[in-house]
Amino acid sequence: MVAAYRLGVFSLGLFLAFVALASTNWNMGSNQTSLKALTLLPGDPSLVMQDALQEFGEKQGEVTKKSSAAVRQAARYNLVEGEPLLFEGIRQIGSGAAASGISLLEEARRRDPRSRAVRITLLNSYLRNGNAKGAFGEAGALSRLLPGSETTLVPILANLVIDPATRSAAVAALPDNPLRFPVIDELVDSGASSFMILAITPDLRGAKVWADRPINTLINRGDVEGAYRLWKHTNTLTPPVGSSKVIDGEFDAKAGPPFGWDTFSGSAGLAEIRDGSLSVQYYGRQNTVMARQLLMLQPGTYRLEYAIENAQKEPADLAWRIECLDSGARLLELPFQSSFSFEDVNSKTLIVPSAKCAGQWLSLAGRAMVSPETRASAIDYVRIVPAGAP
Q1: Contact, 59 vs 85, CB < 8 A?
Q2: Measured between alpha carbons, how far is 200 from 196 in angstroms, rounded to an integer?
Q3: Residue 166 and residue 159: Cα distance in Å, rounded?
Q4: DSSP codes of every residue in 232-266
Q5: 271 Cβ partners below 8 Å, 6+ apart?
Q6: pLDDT tens per residue, range 193-221
């Protein structure tokens, strides 16, 4: 049996083989066949290093004693390259001298910062030794050197944040890492609470865009309060809800979705907040939602109130609709006017049940008309108040 040194690459698997093979061609600038045709020296250091790198990739981190000896011999003629240090570092780590082996790998990285094989090996070594800071650094570099590697790297970094033994160092390294936002998404996908996300993003307060996906993930798994907590963290201009239960019910455009207004424009019509009102142009051709926001009404009975500008004109064929997020149960459908499209429901009251209704979608909906025509309306305000309120 051929004796060999192996650096375990556990979860990286075939990814390592690809990396090592890709780095061989990248580092040498040409393929192995063409190099052999250009040299007459059997022990040409370039060929020895390339053969060793190819074996390293094909065997997923294994370096035979024969290859290791050939590399040491060739290194006498190749004193400035990083490959000899890579293989000697692997040999020492395989022999139990992890600290000195990692030092050699770090020197190899200094000599060739773009070597994918060196950085993959260092990443694996840092992971095995619980060095979260070092692992984050290598993963960040590899994400730039290897397009498409994010799928493999992000779960590794997320696990470092989750593991109590590495969490502190991982959280400290996270803000400066190019994979920060994908890691946050991975954490939420893996079940992280809003409290954990808030704890690792204090510097992102008021920055809205990064949190859209985590907020929607929390909503989709029914954690409305957690989603609202994270939404408030990223919406510093959020106006107080007050007694109306609707955020930005007077349409000042100070709060974004999902707990503020989300407006939609397309083939069904146009909706936008401007000049202190919700302006809607609805074509009447298809069922649609023109605007909506997510509410957090407690169980009880409420009343919806609204006002339309120029109410004497025939309004667009729209209706306010409230549905439970969890069950989809419709609690209210209040059309602007009686029509064929909507049930003739004039009651402005709704009852929020105590079960399966932790959040509610308030929507301005349109449904297809028998004879479609374009109509426009502007809503001055909408509010939801307890049924007994004056």
Answers
A1: no
A2: 7
A3: 9
A4: HHH-TTPPP-TTS-STTTT----S-TTTS-EE--B
A5: 263, 264, 265, 278, 279, 280, 281, 290, 291, 364
A6: 999 999 999 999 988 889 999 999 999 99
Size (the chain), residues: 390
* Helix orientation angle between 150-162 and 116-128, rounded to the nearest 10 degrees: 20
Enter the tokens of residue 94: 């395989």
Q: How far apart are CA 361 and CA 364, in angstroms?
A: 10
Q: CA dihedral in degrees (152, 154, 157, 159; nearest 10)?
A: -80
* CA pair distance 317, 347, nearest whole angstrom: 17
Dump strand ranges (E) for the chain: 4-6, 62-64, 262-263, 269-274, 277-282, 288-295, 300-308, 318-324, 330-335, 349-352, 360-366, 375-386
Q: What's the pLDDT tens digit per position in 125-139?
A: 999 999 999 999 999
What per-residue confidence (pLDDT) applies to 203?
Answer: 93
Residue type, 43: G
Classify residue 298 as exposed, middle or buried by CB count within 10 Å of its CB (0-12, 13-18, 19+).
exposed
How many Cβ atoms from other residues are within 10 Å of residue 45's Cβ?
20
**H or E element, residue 206:** none
Residues 6 or more apart from 327 whose CB is under 8 A from it? Answer: 356, 357
- State whether residue 209 is helix, strand or coil: helix
Looking at residue 85, what is its pLDDT? 82
Q: Which residues pair with 5 in a beta bridge?
A: 63
- Mean pLDDT for the chain? 81
Under the banding of pLDDT at 50, 70 and 90, the label for residue 48 is: low
Residue 26 pLDDT greater than 60, yes or no: no
Separation of alpha carbons 356 and 325, rounded Å: 8
- 3-state SS assignment for residue 231: helix
pLDDT higher than threshold 60 for residue 11: no
Record the pTM: 0.78
Output the pLDDT for position 284: 85
Residues 228/285, Cβ–Cβ less than 8 Å: no
